[in-house]
Each structure stands twice: as C-alpha cells, then as structure tokens.
Amino acid sequence: MKKKTTIYDIAKELNVTVSTVSRALNGFSTISDATKKAVLETAKKMNYSPNKLASSLKSGKTQTIGVIVPSTQVHFFASVIHSIEQTLKNNGYRVLLYQSNESLENEINGVKTLLEAQVDGIIASMSLETEDVSHFKSVIKQNKPLILFDRTHKDIEAPSVTINDFDAGYMATQHLVDKGYRNIGFVTTSHQIKIFNDRYEGFKQALKDNNLSIAEENIVFGGLSIKDGRFGAGKLLRSTNLPDAIIAGDDFTALGVIKKLKENNLVPPHIGVMGFANETFSAFITPSLSTIDQQANKMGAECAKMFLKMVKKKNPYDNIEHIILEPVLVERQSTDKN
Amino acid sequence: MKKKTTIYDIAKELNVTVSTVSRALNGFSTISDATKKAVLETAKKMNYSPNKLASSLKSGKTQTIGVIVPSTQVHFFASVIHSIEQTLKNNGYRVLLYQSNESLENEINGVKTLLEAQVDGIIASMSLETEDVSHFKSVIKQNKPLILFDRTHKDIEAPSVTINDFDAGYMATQHLVDKGYRNIGFVTTSHQIKIFNDRYEGFKQALKDNNLSIAEENIVFGGLSIKDGRFGAGKLLRSTNLPDAIIAGDDFTALGVIKKLKENNLVPPHIGVMGFANETFSAFITPSLSTIDQQANKMGAECAKMFLKMVKKKNPYDNIEHIILEPVLVERQSTDKN
DNA sequence: CTGAAAGCGCTAACAG
DNA sequence: CTGTTAGCGCTTTCAG
C-alpha cells in the first residue's frame, strides 16, 4: 500500500513549495497559469485526493452538518433527511446522521458526538422523552447554527421549521363539516406534545366556528397506533351518541379506526375518518384515507436553507426565524360522503 | 464568544504538560490517580470538548463510515440505514450519509466526497444507472473497507450482503402452488438487474419442480410501479389462458395488480397475488398482500458487522465474504385461497 | 508570482 | 509518573 499523495509530494515533484500547490489547487488568482496547469496535471497524475480533515482543522469549518432524528424508519423523518441531504450536498455540505430512537440519553450523546466531530451546525427533531434541553443549548452556546423541526421545545431559542398544527386540526375538522358530517369524534394521544395539542385545539375551534358542540364523550385520549385506533373506535361505537365522523391523531391510529369500523359494517365514508401525516400506505388502503400532509420534503428543504442562511452570519442567532408551513389537506375516499 | 478550551488550556491551568492531560483524558494507566482526577475535573470545569478532527488527523482514523444509498425516501434503504447507524454507533462510529438518487454522477461524487472526508469505510447500494464501477474500485485500492448490499455488481471484489433472490422467487411461487394455484403469471421489469432476474429464475425453477408449465403469454415485462401493475394485470386479464395467480416484481406493482383485479371483480385471493419487499402498506391494504420480506434490518446489521470485522484486519480484503440472507415469506390474505 | 514558516488540536515516541 | 518534541496535511500571513 503506497502512502497517499499529499501536496508535499506534488510540490517536490514540481520543485515548488506547498504554498504554491495549495494556491493552485484552490484556484487562487495570484498564480501563473503555467504553474497552475502543471500542478493540476501532476495532481491528477499522482492521483491526489485532498484530506479535508486537515483543511478543516486549519479553517475550523468541516462543511458537515449533523442531523438528529428519532428514527429513519419513520417515513416522515426519512423524507426530511432526504431533502436536507439533497439541498445541502449541492452547497458543499455533508450530512452526519444520528438517531435518538426516542431516547433522551441517545439524544444527548448525539449532540455530544456531533459537536466533537466539529459539525458546522445541527438540524434536529426532538425525542418524545426530551424535557430538559440543556444539551441543545450547548450548541447555541457555541454559536453554532441549531435548527429544530417538527418537534420543537419552548425553552430553546433557536430557529425552527414546523407545521401549523392548529391549522391542521382545523382543516381536518372543517373538511369533515364541509362534507356534511356533524358529530365528530377525536381519538388522540394523552401525551402532552405541542403538535398533538395544537391539532386538538384546531379541532375545537373549527367546531365552535361552525356552531357545533364538542361531545366530550366522543373524545378518546390514549396512544397513537393501529391498536389504539381500534380501541378508540370501539369506545366510540359504544357511545350513546354515536359520532358520524372520527378524526385520529395520526394515520396509523386512523387505520385502526377504519379496521374497527369495517368489522362493524360501518365502512367509511359512511362514518368519515381522517388521519394526520399522509403515510405511504394511506393512499392504498380501502377505503383510501383522507389525511393532512405534513410537508416533509418542504420541511427538510427549509431547514437546509435556514442553516445556509445562518452559517453566513457572524452571529447566527441575530434574528431568529420561525418558519411555519401550512399543512395540506389530502381528500380521499374515507371522507367522501355524498 | 470565548475560544473553545483545548488540552493546552487545561494543561496551563494545572501546570502540567499537554501529554499528561492527553494521557489522563484517554485513561492511560501510566498516570497518577491524583493528576488524572485533577485533569478530569478541570476539563469538566472548563467545559472541555475534544476536537476529534485533530486526533483523526493524527491517527488517520475518523471513526466515521460513509453510507451511499439511492434514496432515504425508499423505505427499504431507510431501514437499512437505521440498523447500520444503530449498530455502528454502539461501536463508536458515526455515519456520513450520501444519496445517489439513482444517478451515476451523484454516486461518483459520493465516493469522492466520502473519501475526501477520510471515512474509515463505505457501505453502499448501487444506483440503477451504474454500469462502470471504477469509483468503487478506488476505495478498494485505498484498502478501505467497502461493503455492498442488495444491489451489487459482479466486477467489484468486495464483501456483500444480499438476499437470495432466487429463493425469494422460488418461495413466492411455491407458496402459491401450496395454496392450490396452478396457472401463475408474472409481472416484472425488463431491466436487467440481477435481483429481478434471480427472482424470475426462481419462479421458473419452482414451476418446473412442481411439474407446472410456464405460460409464456402470462409473463409481462415492463416497469415496476402501481401503474405498471395495473397495466400488467390488464394484459393478463385479456389472456386466452387466464392465470389463477399473479406474482408481481415488487409490492407497488402487486398493488396495481390488485387494484385492477378488484375493478374486474376478481378480488384476491380468488386470483392469488404476491409481491416482493414487504412495504409498510402491504399489511394494510385490502386484501392484505402476501409478500417476501427483504430483511432490511438484518441486512443493515450484517453490513455493519462486516465493516467492524474488516476494519480490524490489516488487509480487509484478505478473504472476502458474501453474506446471503434468506428471504422470509409473509403470508397474508391475497393468497389465502381455501 | 512564489517561498518560508507558523500553527490548527491532538498523539506518541523518546527521554528523563 | 511526567515532560519534550515532532509531526498529521493543509492554509495563510509575511516576505521577497
């Protein structure tokens, strides 16, 4: 195994100094076309590949951004990562990935690891466990760009990119009302996470604006999963005030609701069902599920752009922006009551 | 913004030298408990965070692995990445992510970027466009571990982790035969990719072993997508020799097939349908889709383990292993003919 | 237009 | 048990 060639090797080869080689390689103007050409040629001939580690050590910039997400197995996060990487790669940045697996401990380790790797910034979505956020504050303290998306936290003074979940809830509800449903139930999580809360608030407001009352008995707080959906639907089916539509906290829960309804011969859209997230499967189940799209790709792109903007400023936290994307209603069969 | 504290700062603080500090920090035994304790304490007090860049430059190891996949938006790849990152993080490695987007040019850029970042190895699945593989050979030439998964290439002499796609095809076919189907059609891609070809070969062998003939008119070569599935099924429905079961090249195509069949009141399992990949949606559509699971998580874990094994050897390519995982049959409603 | 030399932060051989 | 010192590969003043 021959040693990798460095700028020293190519300097020696050409009887110039490393500074000359460095300049030529970096396309500085203060260099004669002749030597520049020579350098470039021998570089290629000697199969030179720059060691970015060395320049990073010198410059203090790694051209690398850290991304922390709960799990790439969740389609939403995979999509966000997709567009972050796409956007940033075109701007000369690399992506260092870290999964928290919804564990605070992992998340803390994540920012530590990324910081030690000297990333130029971090884009993250918090784990469900996270309450104390001092680990995130440490990146702000270093004056490195930190951008939070989707799952943010009120104690962190950093830019964020989120969906307007109040509108999402409102939109889902209004859609059902528009379709003629009047007695709308809600199956969601008791977890005190902002986004779920906001959706619920939007739901309530929409009902109020339409002069519809909230049937407290038709609100089920549990978890979010297919199983929870079945459970929630089961509870509503036993209600003395059977709802004519059900909104679920996410698409998986909605799927559970649909399954339970079908088993009871109350196939949507006879009873309307709405979810949140627009998972891949939602278009393909029967009946196909109306839902609210979370704009994952746009969210990723916005995070990336935000980072690029921040990284240019001497003080990234000069004037903190919070981007709130509008959710998008996806109408499908499960609410298509005519 | 105060400068970051280095081992020099903490050395000065304690009136010792950097070597002492370095030793203490790295837990060397040749250091007195007293100084070690002092160092650790002041390190914490001064909020010290090591600059891994510097040690990497020195050691030539970055503790970082590069991962190249077509797209994280494809659930299979997202799952593989998930387990790669999970496994490697527990062994002190970070993951640098690069998406090729099925473009050869991007892929070439990917290995260049990762190599310049001095990754300790690369795990990759090739883009559909890739024919010439010299870019991958360059990583082997550097004697750095390269592991290919799922989409490999015969010209690359590197370890690989794949699924036995012949068995996958065989298994799918045998399952249909076991369920009583006798006249089995196939809707797949004309693209000459090994994995698709292997599945088709497995299909043919299984028919032969069961003394069933291949109805050439019931083999459709096109693309792989919902649309292609509908198209393929349409063609088979017009066949003079209507099949009683259809295998599709992947789950999306199978979904298209199912949709078409349902429109023609030939709801599976009346006509049996099988897919490949076990996408998330496959369990949730109606009827739920029988399919062959590709073992994404296991594949990722195996890639990671292979890397760890290789990175330990002085010559990683000493004795190249090819791990072939067995696919797993997932029986669901679409083939449940009784 | 080019050279000399210092230094980014850390490790490790060598010396005591 | 601790200190000295020479780099890792590259960038970047400061001189010429």
UniProtKB/TrEMBL annotation, chains A, B:
Top-level taxon of origin: Bacteria
Entry keyword set: DNA-binding, Transcription, Transcription regulation
SUPFAM superfamilies given in the database record: lambda repressor-like DNA-binding domains (SSF47413), Periplasmic binding protein-like I (SSF53822)
Coiled coil segments of this chain: none
CDD domains found in the cross-reference section: HTH_LacI, PBP1_LacI_sugar_binding-like
GO molecular function: DNA binding
Transmembrane stretches, start-end: none
Residue span, HTH lacI-type domain: 5-59
Name under which the protein is recorded: LacI family DNA-binding transcriptional regulator
Originating organism: Pseudopedobacter beijingensis
